[in-house]
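Entry:
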Amino acid sequence: MTKKTKGALIFARNNAQIDYIKQAHYSAKRIRKYLDIPTSIVTDSVDYLKETYKDYEEVFDKVIEVPFTNNSTTKRYFDGSGVAKHLQFKNDLRTQSYELTPYDETILLDSDYIIANSLFKNAKDLTAWRDTAEFEKISDSSIDFYWATVIFFRKSEENKVFFELTKHIQENWDHYNSIFQVNRGLFRNDHVFSVAIHIMNGYQEGDFAHKLPGTKYYTADRDILWELDQDNFLFLLEKENHLGEYTPLRIKGSNIHVMNKFSLNRIIDRGVV
């Protein structure tokens, strides 16, 4: 019997100021360290990857090239509470993860999700995040919210149907955006995956998707990652109603979604994994 393959999959498509490939390169080394699995990267900038990271063949199991697109979607990226930039946002290929992954079992995660423990070795199929009061529903009167930040799935007919469904929802997002009362201009994979899970559950609460092990921690892009040494994080968290003032917070041994990509890249440039 052929042994099943397992690995991580990261999408990394740069914009004018944020180097997602840098984040994926950093993340892949941490995934190997804490989870002991390989990582494949999906990118539209293969030449840049090979020219910039000479060790790419050691860091990445496979480099999966996708066409370069210059889409018009933009979002506002904060770097702490006082600085924001409108930049291109390429998030339209996550629904193709099922056919792009080279693995039988895949941990699909954002490049800015920092692994600092081995909890995901115990992930079940299909698993996604649904946590915190702020993200309980995709709108005030709609369905349960599921993070697409990090997901574990196995190759199976049921999961193949699920990912085909996410592509259908994406292609017809104006319809689903209205039906499920999301009513937001920015396309988000969290919303697409939440709608797909709801449909797979028969348009009711169900158990199609399970919760990943551990707690999902995240910091907003108005917060700043100040230090990261191995699994020790130091964040500066934005103070409520005090623009430009922060509260320091240390946390150790937890996986964290660091939404301030500028501060994450500054940490990566220091060279500590």
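The first helix runs from residue 20 to 35.
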